[in-house]
Design a protein that fits this description.
The chain is of the alpha+beta class. It has ten helices and five strands; from the N terminus they run H-H-E-E-H-H-H-E-H-H-H-E-E-H-H. It folds into two domains: 99 residues, no CATH class; 82 residues, no CATH class. Strands 2-1-3 form a three-stranded antiparallel β-sheet. Strands 4-5 form a two-stranded antiparallel ribbon. A hairpin with a 2-residue loop joins strand 1 and strand 2. Helix 1 packs across helix 2.
Length: 208
């Protein structure tokens, strides 16, 4: 199903009516841990809004791992849909979280509830990842930086599909780049993600 701006606005309205807590409960999502959707000065749970905007599958579950793919998911519909972190949003408003909120003993949960969730994922060919990492030779293919080493003493790099599989991207060497963790997050959540996308494709074309 293709999500439209009208679909998103409908769920924003429903979220306003129900309140965030009831909206999350209705669609089976957890509270957002970092990224929020900001629209007309109000914050919303980004993944929940995006997932709820889809028609649920026959089993009634909302496969947000497959449906949601970063800031572009919203901004391609309308640049007014702005994704940010809670801290960034408060900073833009000239506010900051109170220190006592961080030290409050009532914050959090000593016995977190465990909940099994169903999620789907596109099947990736492991050989593509292997070949991309071999091509990178221990360096981030975008910044040329040397990533940290993991517990096994190996260079830690992540592979990124430049055109996401959910956007009909292909699982081939020509669409996958090796990135350090920082640049990988930027590719998904940075405000210049579209510029990075073009740069990544140029880099891959130059080495293949």
């Amino acid at each position: 199903m293709t999500v439209t701006k009208k679909d998103i606005l409908k769920k924003l309205s429903e979220c306003n009516t129900l309140g965030i807590s009831q909206f999350l409960e209705k669609y089976g999502f957890q509270p957002p841990r970092g990224v929020f959707l900001i629209y007309q000065g109000q914050e919303y749970p980004a993944r929940a809004i995006w997932g709820a905007a889809h028609t649920p599958p026959l089993d009634g579950t909302y496969d947000n791992a497959r449906m949601y793919h970063g800031p572009g998911a919203f901004q391609n519909l309308d640049p007014a849909f702005y994704l940010t972190t809670k801290a960034e949003y408060l900073a833009l408003k000239g506010e900051s979280p109170a220190i006592q909120d961080l030290d409050d003993e009532g914050f959090g949960n000593e016995e977190p509830e465990y909940r099994r969730r169903m999620a789907g994922a596109y099947i990736r060919n492991p050989e593509v990842r292997t070949q991309v990492l071999r091509r990178a030779n221990g360096k981030c293919e975008y910044g040329g930086c040397t990533p940290f080493k993991n517990l096994n003493g190996q260079i830690y790099l992540e592979t990124h599909h430049v055109i996401s599989l959910s956007e009909q991207g292909i699982d081939r060497l020509t669409n996958v780049i090796a990135l350090c963790a920082n640049h990988h997050r930027e590719a998904h959540f940075g405000q210049d993600w579209q510029i990075l996308q073009d740069k990544f494709l140029t880099i891959i074309a130059s080495v293949d």
